Amino acid sequence: MLAGRAPGVAVVLAPSGAVAGVDVRGAPFGTRELDLLDPSALVRHVHAVVLADGLASANGVVRWLSERNHGFPVGPRPHEVVPIVPAAAVGDDPVDRGYAACEDAGAEVPGAIVVVGRVAAALVVVDADLTKAECRRVAMTAHDGLARAGVRVPATVFALATGNPTGAVLDDLCVTATEAVQRAATA
């Protein structure tokens, strides 16, 4: 996984796919493809997660991944893919800076990323092999990190698992994720 940034957007790329979960509390400003993160949904992996000032930036991330043939296969050819890119917006900026954030990607993913606007969005990465339901549990717990940091606005929190079979205990991952989100929100 790689992280990238551009003004008003942060993206975590998982071109080979990663399991993700989400927890939404309050009325989010804007979201995209969150229903695909439900454990009952057919799609198992996401290819990126976007936190941005506006949902338009997710379009650039989808374009960047498509150009590199990363996504959910919808046909027999390598380029016949649909990238799965859940996103949360903290504002209504109509400018697409997602492609630029992908071009910037290369930095190792920090433990957590938090973006605050009229609402908040956060993403935490855990080094473990988890199911979508377990990722959702991590996201729900990590939400507490925002409250501990004094962020008291509606928020969307994503949890992304690396897929590494580390044998980590779910409760320990939840504690670590909460602390990472708290640190990122106060940084």
Automatic annotation (TrEMBL):
**Highest taxon of the source?**
Bacteria
Q: Name one GO molecular function term.
A: aminopeptidase activity
Task: Tell me its family.
Answer: Belongs to the peptidase S58 family.
What is this protein's record name?
Peptidase S58-like protein
